[in-house]
Amino acid sequence: MEATYLPNPNDSNATILLMGLRRGGKSSICKVVFHDMQPLDTLYLESTSKPTSEQFSSLIDLSLMEIPGQLNYFEPEYDSARIFQSVGALVYVIDSQDEYLNALTNLSMIIEFAYKVNPKIHIEVLIHKIDGLTEDYRIDAQRDIMQRTGDELLDLGLEGVQVSFYLTSIFDQSIYEAFSKIVQKLIPELPSLENMLDNLVQHLSIDKVFLFDVNSKLYVATDSSPVDIQTYEVCAEFIDITIDLDELYVDENGEQTNKEIKSISRLSNHSLLYLRQMIRGLALVALIRNDDENLNDMDSMLTVVNYNVNLFKQALMQMWQNSKFVKKTNDVNESLSVDRLH
Ligand SMILES: Nc1nc2c(ncn2[C@@H]2O[C@H](COP(=O)(O)OP(=O)(O)OP(=O)(O)O)[C@@H](O)[C@H]2O)c(=O)[nH]1
């Protein structure tokens, strides 16, 4: 394998390694989630023949590495130990519409190896392409896959290893939900972020609030109330609408204005959708209860929301700068790239 495909172990990026048998859906997931490809267009994707790696910067700098199913990365020419040592999460994709027993054997072999060289690795299994299965069959498949994986790990003496399972499809929001949870585990500041979002919910009439990565529509944090997939969908679509509208605005020189993006929309049930651009490609999107018909009352409510969201943004900036500082001091010999606030 060429050296360029290896994640740098000194890299401050959190690396996600995407693995699984051929045609499982790995490239499709990357293209749909991170490159806005329409799910149906993935039908024509060619099988990947070489490992690929790409960078995404969000609150943290992420890299996503895909190892094609047709490679045997345990051959001596691949430095598998080095790969696994430097990844934060191993995401293994299983095609649930296909015979999956081989995939499960392959998965346990990879877990055994990965866990040995990196006991801190998060192991995440996507039971993928569930769009083709009935509701009952999905639950059966999940139960069967979890049971068999558990048995295989027990046989290998690895019963303590934590493995998370997700039912996913690129044709609905499930892949975004799964990937959001996977990325969240790699963000060390997550508990503080969740606390800050809970604080917003407690003090304002917010039903749900997300901190979104605008490009991928993954949420890097949310308050602690359960995520309802419809609310997620409405909030994610609101980002697209806001950005489309924002692109229409130009200044007197015909150039795009560089102001902070902010948008509020009133839904037919009187609730408000509220979006504010944060730092590093993030946006805060909240669903706010609003029982007041009176527009003056609504204005004063929004003033309080704006004030609190400003404080949140400042805290977020502080948090990011501190985390950069910690990384720098941990990594004195490493010349860090200078990140820029968006
Ligand atoms: N029904 C369905 N098909 C999917 C889904 N995700 C991917 N596919 C299809 O699965 C096929 C294989 O997808 P790829 O993304 O090329 O698979 P891969 O794992 O990258 O395969 P290799 O490159 O050979 O390792 C494509 O025809 C996709 O359209 C899904 O969620 N549901």
Automatic annotation (TrEMBL):
Transmembrane segments: none
GO process annotations (BP): cellular response to amino acid stimulus; cellular response to nitrogen starvation; cellular response to oxidative stress; endocytic recycling; microautophagy; negative regulation of autophagy; positive regulation of TORC1 signaling; positive regulation of transcription by RNA polymerase II
Pfam families attached to this UniProt entry: Gtr1_RagA
Annotated GO MF terms: GTP binding; GTPase activity
Reactions this protein catalyses: GTP + H2O = GDP + phosphate + H(+)
Oligomer status and interactors: Component of the GSE complex.
Cited PANTHER family: GH16429P, RAS-RELATED GTP BINDING RAG/GTR YEAST
Family: Belongs to the GTR/RAG GTP-binding protein family.
Protein name: GTP-binding protein
